[in-house]
Amino acid sequence: MAVLDVTNIKGEAVSKVELADAIFNVPVKPxxxxxxxxxxxxxxxxxxxxxxHRSEVSGSTxxxxxxxxxxxxxxxxxxSPLLRGGGVVFGPDNRSYQQRVPKKVRKLALKMALSSKLxxxxxxxxDTFGMSRIKTKDFMQALSGLGVGKALVVTHQKDETLxxxxxxxxxxxxxxxxxxxVYDILKYRTLILLEAAxxxxxxxxxx
Length: 207
Description:
This protein is α/β, with parallel strands linked by helices. It is built from 7 helices and 6 strands.
């Protein structure tokens, strides 16, 4: 079982915490992480690209002029794809990009992502991220004291002061344990866990 220092907001060690091997010491398999991240990004894709085909365009179905004797090319109705305002032939339709990965695989990938952060020494545990006011400057000073830049902060409950203070900071994201996912863990260089979030994380992944 790994033992990690718990620091305060100034970066000073105040205690220690034990991290469960079943979550933070799992062999990392890149192919599983890739599968889950691909699923997450695919599921975020919009499904709104669409055009109107010939049958969906508003207009009369009357033949524009007679078939023969005019010296012009034969022509059907005004909804022809060859005419301005007509239907589109091979345009996109609404389609689903949804992918499904088994729940056990998603849970395993989350454990692997957490393990990779511990192995890379990119995991920090804070006793609390207490902020007395909503102030971006105070949040930036706290990150500077911890010596981190691009970071993902995981909280155990809703903290509106912290969330609003970090909202305009680039390359930083604040998430609650319930929303923790593989993509965000891998995207940010440093993972900052509040000490109170660890029991909730274990309860979520050790079921």
